Amino acid sequence: MSALWDRVRDWARQPVTKRPMIGLALGGGFARGIAHIGVLRVLEANRIPIHAVAGTSSGSIIAGALAGGASTDCLIRHARSLRFRDLAGWTISRLGFASNERMIQFLTRTFPKTTFDHLKMPLAITATDLLSGEPVIFRRGDLIEAVRASCAYPGLFLPVKVNGRTLIDGTFSCPIPAAPLQQIGVRHIIAVNVGGPHPSKLPENLFQMLHQCFALMQKHVGGDWRRQAGVVIEPDLNDCDWDDLGKVDCLIAAGEDAARAALPAIRRLLEPAPAAPSRQELATA
Known about the structure:
By secondary structure, the chain is of the alpha/beta class. Helix content is 40%, strand content 16%. The longest helix is centred in the last third of the chain and has 22 residues, at 248-269. It is globular and about 75 Å long. Residues 7-17 have low confidence and may be disordered.
């Protein structure tokens, strides 16, 4: 009888409305974000359905391309051709060393769709309000503008102004965007963290120092996303620096290895929900 009422309880807890089942939350890490492509390749090869996606910083680039219908082969081609000059133009400002306006051309080439309204699945892009520190979540409007804001890494890139707000990298308020997926209505979240520190190597320049400090901050702050995620994938990227755009194959392979290791846990997310008890079962309980 106890087992039967456990079934009743589990069935009653199912959502009444139909909601996306699997959501993918992609975190930031500059060049390390290329590892997300390896994760996508494994999910695709194993026919793991993705119903919604969210991205922060470099994860927002992969998320935007995926939601627009880009293939992993297409993403690999763009990653292999990517250079720092495609993303940044040096400038003279007290707020940063470079503007990321050059991303507009790169993202236009990379994204099959450039507005949220025309995407093939629900998408959330996160940035951070520089004044309040609050997360700013984009789900409508211009996709390229949202991604530029999400990638405005402070100290390196100038802040991006959108709708009267001054925005910086989404990592500072939402390092792994699991919460926005919950707001969309996703039941199960696969979180991919590519931004962790690499303690075996000391920084060698100012930008590496900034990245290391931000990665350490991310490690100790904002752990809610781990509790919100059903599965966490963390590729081993200790040998890859934040700016290693030339290590595309290494980064993708690390993403693939981590995703394969997570496949048993991911498949458990796809197990069917408990069926409603029959009248006969309830009558004889």
